[in-house]
Design goal:
The protein has a domain of 39 residues. It is 38% helix and 0% strand. The chain contains 3 helices and no strands. It comes from Vibrio sinaloensis DSM 21326. InterPro entries: DUF1289. This is Fe-S protein.
Amino acid sequence: MGSINETTQPSDSTLPPNPCVRNCCLNERDICLGCGRTLQEILHWTQYSAVEKAQVLRLCQQRKR
């Protein structure tokens, strides 16, 4: 049986993918025109949980409409 850390940590394959498309340009509201994330979301992406990343991805889709 695995340790608690092994069973509670999501694997890389279950984490939402980084939405970066290497087309980084911020608009006047500090939102990337390439991926739709805010500057703060870009800076904190690696610290977000899988749930938080999924939420950011939903927000990105809304912003890019």
